[in-house]
């Protein structure tokens, strides 16, 4: 027996889970590969269930498999912990007779327990640390999104009652990057898989994420930006974006003048979302800018002025956003302006980028 086999015996991994667990632990798997392997496991369990004579046997089997998932989740080693999350995620798709029945709702006991376990063992487990958390929390958040996608009305209510407050509390924590990362990931997955829940709470979510996107830690900033873009896409599908674009641009105006580099980078991330063409089509964005009477050339110049920032991360973000600004506001880039005469913004930025290349 090799090390992995020995470890599985020590943990008590169920025989039906061994192939999937060993593949996750022994090599890095892409998300697509994990989905394929997980589907094979679900198919194998369903096929096995057809040979069982009583429903109770299937319920007992799922209980044993779930317990194996919990044991894996309890492991300190990140690879084994991820294997536990993947196993538990697979088991969300399987129905049994274990239910919580109240006067208001019906919920699957096992699914609710899995959700609660992910909260306790992953999202509230600060021992995992931020770097590992960027992998483990993402995997766990995908499982919460999975549950939200297949949830009964009662299970959706449980997620709203439990996970939404957890996410908002984590986002509002001023001292923990791990919490802000986890909160951002939960909100992102709920926005994708439980849109009605998130849309009803769009304003506090927007406020929390625009604060998180200006945090010092780059992992938190970028993850909060992912969640913010996902939430704004949801909003754009249901209402006008004029007010949201206006509010976002005010944040950009204020943030670009900040002396804190993380705030400057954060509002550049917000601007990147606004001009990216995902939240609002670029033609619509240009019309909104006219409606708001926003001088596009002023925004462009204020961003370009940061090319001389003493902070290397700010300078790199400016370089990154220039092509996107040019794409979003191509007309403004190609006409004369008062800031870069005799050059227009296009020639000015091209010259700047050429100078950077030569300097290397």
Structure description:
The longest helix has 21 residues, at 130-150. The protein has a two-stranded antiparallel sheet. The N and C termini lie far apart (53 Å). The chain is elongated. Helices cover 73% and strands 2% of the residues. α8 (153-172) packs antiparallel against α9. The protein contains 19 helices and two strands. The protein has helices spanning 3-11, 18-26, 31-49, 55-73, 78-91, 109-123, 130-150, 153-172, 177-193, 195-199, 202-212, 218-236, 242-256, 261-275, 282-291, 296-304, 312-328, 330-333, 345-359, and strands at residues 99-101, 106-108. Residues 100-104 have low confidence and may be disordered. With 360 residues, the protein is mainly alpha-helical. A hairpin with a 4-residue loop joins β1 and β2.
Task: Show the helix and strand layout.
Elements: H1 3-11, H2 18-26, H3 31-49, H4 55-73, H5 78-91, E1 99-101, E2 106-108, H6 109-123, H7 130-150, H8 153-172, H9 177-193, H10 195-199, H11 202-212, H12 218-236, H13 242-256, H14 261-275, H15 282-291, H16 296-304, H17 312-328, H18 330-333, H19 345-359
Antiparallel strand pairs: 1-2
Helix pairs in contact: 2-5, 3-5, 4-5, 4-6, 5-7, 6-7, 6-8, 7-9, 8-9, 9-12, 11-12, 12-14, 13-14, 14-17
């Amino acid at each position: 027996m090799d090390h992995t086999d020995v470890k599985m015996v020590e943990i008590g991994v169920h025989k039906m889970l061994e192939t999937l667990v060993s593949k996750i632990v022994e090599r890095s798997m892409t998300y697509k590969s994990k989905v394929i392997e997980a589907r094979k496991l679900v198919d194998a369990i369903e096929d096995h269930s057809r040979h069982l004579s009583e429903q109770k046997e299937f319920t007992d089997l799922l209980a044993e498999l779930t317990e194996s998932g919990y044991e894996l989740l309890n492991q300190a080693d990140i690879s084994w912990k991820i294997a536990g999350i993947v196993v538990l995620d697979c088991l969300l798709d399987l129905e049994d007779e274990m239910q919580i029945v109240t006067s208001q709702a019906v919920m699957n006991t096992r699914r609710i327990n899995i959700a609660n376990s992910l909260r306790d063992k992953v999202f509230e487990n600060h021992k995992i640390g931020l770097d590992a958390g960027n992998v483990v929390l993402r995997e766990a958040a995908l499982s919460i999104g999975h549950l939200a996608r297949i949830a009964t009305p009662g299970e959706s209510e449980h997620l709203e009652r439990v996970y939404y407050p957890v996410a908002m509390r984590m986002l509002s924590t001023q001292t923990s990057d791990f919490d802000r990362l986890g909160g951002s990931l939960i909100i992102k997955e709920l926005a994708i898989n439980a849109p009605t829940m998130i849309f009803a709470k769009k304003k506090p979510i927007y406020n929390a994420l625009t604060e998180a996107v200006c945090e010092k830690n780059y992992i938190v900033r970028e993850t909060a930006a992912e969640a913010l873009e996902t939430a704004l896409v949801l909003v754009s599908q249901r209402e006008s974006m004029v007010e949201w674009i206006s509010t976002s641009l005010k944040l950009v105006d204020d943030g670009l003048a900040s002396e804190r580099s993380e705030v400057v980078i954060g509002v550049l991330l917000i601007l990147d979302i606004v001009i990216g063409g995902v939240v609002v089509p670029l033609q619509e964005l240009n019309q909104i800018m006219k409606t708001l009477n926003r001088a596009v050339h002023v925004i462009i110049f204020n961003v370009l002025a940061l090319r001389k920032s003493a902070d290397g991360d700010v300078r790199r973000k400016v370089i990154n956003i220039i092509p996107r600004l040019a794409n979003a506001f191509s007309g403004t880039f190609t006409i004369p302006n008062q800031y870069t005469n005799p050059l227009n913004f296009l020639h000015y930025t091209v010259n700047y980028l050429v100078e950077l290349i030569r300097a290397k």
